[in-house]
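Sample log: GAF domain-containing protein.
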Amino acid sequence: MTAISGQRSTAVRVGEAAEEDLRALFGQSIAVFASLVGPTHVVETANPAFFVTIGEERARTGVPVAELMPELAGQGFVALLDEVYRTGEPYTGRDARIVLGTGPHAREAFFDFTYEPRRDADGTVTGIRVIGVETTQVKHAQRLMVEHRAMLEQIARQAPLAEVLDGMARCIENLAPDQVLVSVLLADPDGEHLRHGAAPSLPEFYNRAIDGIATGEGVGSCGTAAHRREPVIVTDIATDPFWDDFRDLAERAGLAACWSMPILARDGGLLGTFAMYHRTPRVPQDTDLALARVFADTAALAIERHHVEQAKTAAEARAKAANEELAKAVRAERQLRAEAEQRASTAAELADRMRAAAAAQAARPHPEHCQLGGAQGCTAPAKIKIADSWGDAAWGCDAHVEEAILNVRSVFIASEELGGLAAYVNR
């Protein structure tokens, strides 16, 4: 009997030593470790990483895990502890999703973990060791890489900006651990107003109301972020002074928190804002802010690419308009040249007629019929005498005289008879 008792005592001491070794091993580890005892899974001891994970304000022992972390109710983890305690069979989970904390401080996390039964000298299960490694960042990074690559491909193939921004907003809404509503506003060229860019999950009346809001201190989260060129985190719209002018609008839309980040160009110019809305007051985690920064930078790339394409299209349109104007000018110049050539030809022909008429006039000073009718002749009475600077003169009818005056340079009325000049003036 004494020997058996001694063996049990030795086994207990060995078990306690092993437990101490585990505590020492996980004391400074980033892995989560907790030792639970009894059927209610009282937290006997835990390493710092465990309390950092669940929230250091809850760093205490001697209470059941369900009391320490009431948010576990309904998530299945306490039921798994019960199962391991009852059967003595260990359990291993991979990429298990868990929501830690409640209210504004709640966050989504993922873990690889093991529930390992603790036994006394008789082999009876007395508790459970919890060993886990948080994989949240890896999980988010994997999902982020896939979505981010898809967006970069959209930008590279020059998809419309509205399509890129809408896809980005939906992507973040899917990646975020809690319900989030994303909005992207685009800056006017003057940088003084913000226009709707994308907000697939916000109510339409809300999007219309904020389309065109000014940038400035205290103009909601987005107007202020655009003005400051830095993130503006409003965790509770109901009490924040930045939202005094928009509080009723936000309440109608069911919005309680808004974190906004400016979208900046490479030269620091304002391109727009990127906002994440929540239905309940919310404090952002580091992962939330990192996600916002990544997608704000991606939005900047898409918007700058869009501006480049717009500038290119505008330049091409201006070049096309200039070419059309040039072509029009060339056509007009050709037409004018043709008309000038026609006038020159007409003038030359009329000059020839005048010379011929002058020669004929030498024999008969005042002919009976018009001398300017050309080869076909003109039977109208010769009423007016005209001459040019070369001294050639001829008599013609009203119509042919007027044609000569309009088309032949330096032609003037040379009739000395009152009837000829009066006939032209008073015709």
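Observation: The first helix runs from residue 2 to 26.
Observation: The longest strand covers residues 107-119.
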